[in-house]
Design brief:
mainly alpha
């Protein structure tokens, strides 16, 4: 595999097929193991040959599911670059129209959120407008703010307008945990 082939693979899989189905009918369209193995080979290639061009391609490759455990490993690739290189791509991914891209970008933002108000503000926006899964990721990531007072304030502000009872409970639990 060379750089062009690896980049082309990622370009052709924006996003990857889902690795989790929401209905029994969806199970026929799940990502084949061989394709995810190739995705992991591309990830490993870029671990050995870092290329900034692959960052947004990886961030926009996420689909519904966990990529059979491979998506989590993409974070290791991001750590190969300075925060100032990765953060703008995370901001773009957090603002994506894809729930799966948003979800993974928010989770990966936990290592960058204290260094970027723009990223933090995008995640706060998603806490208001995202799906339940994305909101959960936002809560977990925002709880990692260096100033727990900032996180508590954000959570209190969201609590009064949140309609999802499970998200409300998660906000309450996180506020109590941060105050402890």
């Amino acid at each position: 595999m060379n750089n062009n082939q690896a980049i082309e693979f990622l370009k052709n899989h924006q996003p990857m097929p889902p690795t989790k189905s929401t209905t029994p009918e969806d199970s026929d369209s799940l990502c084949p193991d061989e394709l995810m193995m190739e995705y992991d080979s591309v990830r490993k290639y870029f671990m050995e040959h870092p290329d900034e061009k692959a960052i947004p391609l990886f961030l926009n490759s996420f689909s519904f599911g966990d990529g059979y455990g491979v998506y989590q490993l993409v974070e290791d690739y991001l750590w190969l670059f300075p925060k100032e290189t990765v953060t703008p791509y995370l901001v773009e991914a957090v603002a994506s129209q894809s729930d799966s891209v948003q979800y993974w970008a928010v989770l990966f933002s936990s290592s960058y959120i204290n260094d970027s108000y723009v990223l933090r503000d995008k995640i706060v926006e998603l806490l208001e407008h995202g799906t339940s899964e994305v909101k959960e990721a936002c809560i977990v990531t925002l709880a990692l703010l260096e100033s727990s007072g900032d996180a508590i304030s954000i959570f209190h502000n969201r609590l009064s307008n949140e309609q999802d009872i499970e998200i409300k409970q998660m906000l309450i639990d996180m506020i109590c945990e941060l105050k402890a």
